[in-house]
Amino acid sequence: MKILLPHVLIMDPRSPHHGQTVDLLLEDGSIVAIGDTLDALGATVLESARGRLVSPGWVDGRARSGEPGHEERETYTSLAHAASHGGFTHVAVMPSTTPARDSRPHVEALHQATGSLPVEFLPIGAVSKGLHGEQMAEMLDMLEGGAVAFSDDTHSISNPHLLQLALQYSADLPTHVQSFAYERHLCPSGQAHEGVVALSQGLSPIPTLAESLRIQRDVMIQEYAGGHLHIAGVSSAEGVEAIRAAKARGQQISADVAIANLIGTEEDIRGFDSTYKVLPPLRSSEDREALWEGFMDGTLDLVVSDHQPMDTEAKDCEWGQALFGAATIEHTFGWYRHLYPSHEALERWIEAVAHRARELYHLGTCEIKVGMPADLTVFALDGSAEGLATKGVNVPSWTQNGRAVGTILGSHITGLA
Fold this sequence. Notes:
The radius of gyration is 21 Å and the shape is globular. The strands form three sheets. Strands 1, 2, 3, 4, 5, 16, 17 and 18 form an eight-stranded mixed β-sheet that branches. An eight-stranded parallel β-sheet has the order 6-7-8-9-10-13-14-15. Helix content is 29%, strand content 21%. It has two domains: 97 residues, Urease, subunit C, domain 1; 304 residues, TIM Barrel (Alpha-Beta Barrel). By secondary structure, the protein is an alpha/beta fold. 55% of the residues are buried. α5 links the parallel β11 and β12. It contains twelve helices and 18 strands.
């Protein structure tokens, strides 16, 4: 089957066609021609792509599905449609399900359940059995079953010996270990960033020390054990600086920032709207500025949606009882584009979600050139995403200025006609 995307602007700094307005011809899941006014004979012309931007398909480095265990919050199908609506063709899904994804059968079951969906799911396996932080899960078995990385998600890895073993075990494997940057024992009842807003509203604080303390510990363990350590959910200026210093020493460390922390601040929680109750918490404007600088200079490798959909029961209650998390995957790009509208910011976005994320998850290269797979995101630099595919009710209302128009992954075409 031939597909023609007419008069599209290529946005891919690694492509020889970067910045060019061209026709893009696809056939049997591959890019077969790129040029001016290509012959459309026998091809289906996707007119809704005309005049839009096209990049390699975006990869979301962290999201969650309610399935299995909490299908009322999100199913694999609803997550796939929400992801493609947000412009993502691949989604790394966390192991914090019920039961936890801590064995090869669980990883293989995810692949089997999602193989026909328009988005490729990248299973992240648990570091510890049951996410209990005690006994290491069968990482090699899960890797051979299709896992791409390992994490205990926001349960974090409190046991330093467990993190050491996981890093040593994975050191020679094509994978990495993720550690959530949060020392929970420092603030076991924390509800919001330790700042003027939490103080004025009587909320138990989560200091930035809880993050920097954990990052410094994990960095020291990685320096001793080796392996590839990924710091998940950096939210503070201190955290950025700790990672910058570790990278300067040559340590094999990568890191990400959740879109909520790159967009929001503690001011968003003044109305006690639990939609904005996320972990790590929304911090100060100074922290947000440091996160932005860290992302732009490469200290922070990725922006992730950190999608965590919730149902009404989990969020429509008092702040202290509401669960952490926001449903973000459909609006990640629009929010980013509104707050950071420069061309440099756009190119950094593409480098991160289209290329660096692929490197971290060992997906292979995906540049827009003849012979490469048809794995594409079509997007616009204005407007906002309309409608919702997620089942999550906890979608923040930050302003958008940009949206995904559609995605193409092999034979799957969504949002384009």
